[in-house]
């Protein structure tokens, strides 16, 4: 499989068709899981989930920041003070405070001591990661279902072409028989012309079947993320039914239900985060800094240039207590509960739909199996009728119309058998999907 993937990567990068690649179902699924855009986007969602979780965790970790500034004060603000301070009673004195230049550098640390919203977010982080993991798994299952469906449709198109080829061979023999009779004066020209028209119609059908194979192959290549110009072939495979209907429903394994359950859980965490706004919060704040003042720029000057530096520090605790916000928190909590109730309704509806899908898949399997057996018998009977009619026509005991009708019935029987087998394969896929076992398609070819 690894060698095949490397080969396909080289083919895609070169951008032109190379030697035909044979794909079995596992190869097609593995290629899709490796290169399909939907799967890659699901992987990126997982990476994004890790980043979101890291962001939530950061709220509980210490936050350290630093700042620095230099300010020039061309005009210092003056304050008027009573003259008594300076020994001049009855007078006022204007005094300018500060220096022309000030510089400061400060480092601040803040640490959450208690914040219910942060702690709730940390608890919800694990559920968020699990949600994206389930979403990625569901994406893979959807890709597997589409690839398997496209894969079997290629088989159907190929089988239809084989049916047309078989009918062409029979009709060509009929044309030769009618021509021989016509040359010997034992058949009318209109019979010969009618047989040739039937042959030409089948040749046209063959071209349509060839085109159908190419279209279904292109659809398969698109589904697995392969270059459209790459030639592929499918191995010989038994197209017979392989799964017997089982009535053991294990709906709890369905990824869709697990994902909906996880979504409900996340909505519940969201409601708890909203309710956390009722709780007070506390954080520790610490500052340490340096302040320089003087008549010159303090950054590179000291006391010898009239610049004086001093340090400062402060430690405190900030407490916020919510008292009243007009009922906004309560309103948001009610909105959260409404979303939870909607998600639960979706869960029940989805569960019911899955049970319906499972029962329908069982019925489809049983009906398709009956149809296959009937069509197999019809093909055998139509083959016998065709051979008998052909012999009778040679002996003049049957008309050309009888012969062409027999050929048409044989063709229809073969096509009906092919369609019934495809319907059974599609029902197999639907059954595995309804049981949450689609990934077994990548372990055992159907």
UniProtKB/TrEMBL annotation:
Q: Which residues form the signal peptide?
A: 1-17
Keywords, comma-separated and alphabetical: Cell outer membrane, Coiled coil, Membrane, Signal, Transmembrane, Transmembrane beta strand, Transport
Family annotation (SUPFAM superfamilies): Outer membrane efflux proteins (OEP) (SSF56954)
The answer to whether keyword Transport applies is: yes
Coarse class of the protein's main subcellular location = membrane
Q: Does the keyword Manganese apply?
A: no
Where in or outside the cell it occurs: the entry states:
Cell outer membrane
Kindly list any coiled-coil regions of this protein. Answer: 32-59, 365-444
By its UniProt entry, which InterPro entries does this protein fall under?
Answer: OMP_efflux, TolC-like
Write down the superkingdom of origin. Bacteria
Q: Which family does it belong to?
A: Belongs to the outer membrane factor (OMF) (TC 1.B.17) family.
Q: Which PANTHER family match?
A: OUTER MEMBRANE PROTEIN TOLC
User: This protein is called what?
Assistant: TolC family protein
- Organism per entry: Christiangramia antarctica
Organism classification: Bacteria, Pseudomonadati, Bacteroidota, Flavobacteriia, Flavobacteriales
